[in-house]
Structure formats: C-alpha cells, structure tokens
Specification:
Blueprint (H helix, E strand, L loop, with lengths): L3 E9 L4 E10 L2 E13 L2 E9 L6 E4 L12 E2 L6 H25 L3
Antiparallel strand pairs: 1-2, 2-3, 3-4, 4-5, 5-6
Length: 110
C-alpha cells in the first residue's frame, strides 16, 4: 500500500515574511507541492510568488496584490526536473530571493 504523506509548514524569514510549504509524497517521492512566499504588508500576509505543480508540471507564478497569478506565460521549470528537484529549487530560490520578490510585489501595489 502506497501511503501519502502530507506536510504543511512555514519557514519564518523573521523580517516580515514567511515561506509557506505544502507537499505530498509517496515513499519519499514528492507527487505535488506548493511553496509560496508571503510578505507582511499593511497588517496582513500577502502572497507574492508561488511555485506549485497544479498543472502537472512545476512552475512559478508571480502574484498580483489580490493573490492571483499575473497574466502572461507561466514560468515553467525544466521538464527534466522531477518534483523532488523542483521543490528543492523552489525552496532555495524563495529563501535566496525573497527580498527581491517583496520589492517587486510592492511596485505592483494598487
């Protein structure tokens, strides 16, 4: 029997934001994930950038002020990456670049 293991957690960036993680795996192999950077702005957490596997392939969405993907082509990760590799890439990218994502998000403020 293949049991699904679901994990939900946050990585506290301690400077006004979080990376919110949700991933599902079977026998150590990730079969779906979401990794989302959320910034604390105007008294609430607002999602700015999200990696996920919602369309069967890992990609990054840049989000508008209301948390919706900005129109335009999705930023697909290479097809050669499995979801474990894509998840690792996403988590590292968000940790390394959250300040830039926050600044760009603030420029998109309504």
């Amino acid at each position: 029997m293949n049991r699904r293991h679901e994990q939900n957690y946050v990585i506290d960036l301690q400077e006004g934001g979080y990376i919110r993680i949700r991933r599902t795996s079977v026998r150590g192999k990730i079969i779906a994930f979401t990794a989302q950077y959320e910034s604390f702005i105007e008294g609430e957490f607002r999602p700015a950038v999200r990696y996920d596997t919602a369309h069967g392939r890992a990609h990054r969405d840049t989000l508008d002020w209301n948390g919706r993907p900005i129109r335009g082509p999705k930023e697909w990760l290479p097809e050669s990456m499995d979801f474990n590799e894509a998840f690792t890439f996403a988590e590292r990218d968000l940790k390394a670049h959250w300040r830039e994502y926050r600044a760009a998000f603030l420029r998109r403020r309504r």
